[in-house]
Design a protein that fits this description.
With 128 residues, the protein is mainly α. 58% of the residues lie in helices and 3% in strands. It has a two-stranded parallel ribbon with strand order 1-2. Helix 3 packs across helix 4 and helix 3 crosses helix 6. This is DUF4806 domain-containing protein.
Length: 128
């Protein structure tokens, strides 16, 4: 009996992962993400400004990135996938974390969206 119950529960886990909604990129960011140039980064930053439309875009982007990264197995892989959704590697190379020699990554609105997402998944151990 226990074996049958475990088989049913495993099947439920498989179908639950299939039931996640499809991620939809906010309409204002379609065609821009992942950013391919520093000009596109500046355009995204303007769209994610602190006005009402910008805050709505931030929340939509946060939902999109959360759904995209929710199937990853580890916290670091989720962060990597989230950053890959926002930036191409050669653009990301133009930034440093605090901006001592390059542009500051932590001053970006995209960073604040990614950082806010990190509160949803604290560690893989707590997810089980």
């Amino acid at each position: 009996m226990d074996q049958k119950l475990q088989i049913i529960m495993k099947a439920n886990d498989k179908t639950r992962s299939l039931a996640l909604p499809l991620p939809v990129l906010p309409s204002s960011l379609v065609g821009i993400l992942p950013t391919k140039s520093i000009d596109e980064v500046d355009a995204v930053e303007a769209l994610l400004s602190n006005n009402e439309d910008g805050l709505k875009s931030q929340e939509e982007l946060k939902s999109y990135l959360y759904i995209k990264a929710s199937n990853t197995s580890s916290f670091s892989a989720a962060i990597r996938q989230t950053v890959d959704c926002c930036f191409e590697y050669h653009v990301l190379a133009l930034f440093s974390y605090k901006g001592k020699t390059k542009r500051s990554f932590i001053d970006l609105k995209i960073y604040s969206v990614i950082y806010a997402l990190s509160g949803f998944r604290t560690s893989p151990l707590e997810e089980r």
